[in-house]
């Protein structure tokens, strides 16, 4: 009888200790607010990675200021001509249109609250990067410079996305 009681007590204790823990993947650990290191030209930035349609639609709306080296990357899975606007975005931004290899094709400035569309000249844009207006000029990042594809791959993976979907 004592052995049976001891066995049941042991099983009860082990059963309580063996609780199933929920699996938490990187996407739930690192949300859109995470700032991840990405090199552009000779500069190091910390970018929010926007990859879902909802994240891209929201963008930096409502953001009143950005620290000097922070911005947002908008990731797409095909090359296309990009169109952006500044509805409900209360700060001026620069936008870099970037090809699949990370080469900056063009940089444009967008004005706060402007509902006119800013369109890329190229149809070969794979992703974009938005920074505070004037950032690219202040840090010497120009057309032809590269955005680190390796850094973007790591950032996408940290967010829980399949980097191969967005980058070659």
What does this entry look like structurally?
Residues 3-28 have low confidence and may be disordered. This protein is an alpha+beta fold and 168 residues long. The protein has helices at residues 2-17, 26-29, 53-58, 135-138, 149-159, 163-166, and strands spanning 36-40, 43-50, 70-80, 83-84, 93-98, 104-110, 118-119, 125-132. The strands form two sheets. Strands 1-2-3-8-5-6 form a six-stranded mixed sheet. Strands 4-7 form a two-stranded antiparallel ribbon. Strand 5 and strand 6 (104-110) form a beta hairpin. It has one domain (33-166): Protein of unknown function DUF192 (Jelly Rolls), CATH 2.60.120. The protein starts with a helix and ends with a helix. It contains six helices and eight strands, in the order ααββαββββββααα.
CATH architecture classification name: Sandwich
CATH class: Mainly Beta
Helix fraction bin: 25-40%
pLDDT < 50 runs, ≥5 residues: 3-28
- Alpha carbon gap, first and last residue: 67 Å
Most strands sheet: 6 strands, mixed
From the alpha-carbon coordinates, what is the Rg to the nearest angstrom? 22 Å
Report the β-strand fraction as a percent range.
25-35%
What number is the mean pLDDT? 86
CATH topology: Jelly Rolls
Tally of contiguous helical segments: 6
Per CATH, the superfamily is Protein of unknown function DUF192
Walk across the major sheet and give the strand order.
1-2-3-8-5-6
Order of helices and strands: HHEEHEEEEEEHHH
SS content category? alpha+beta
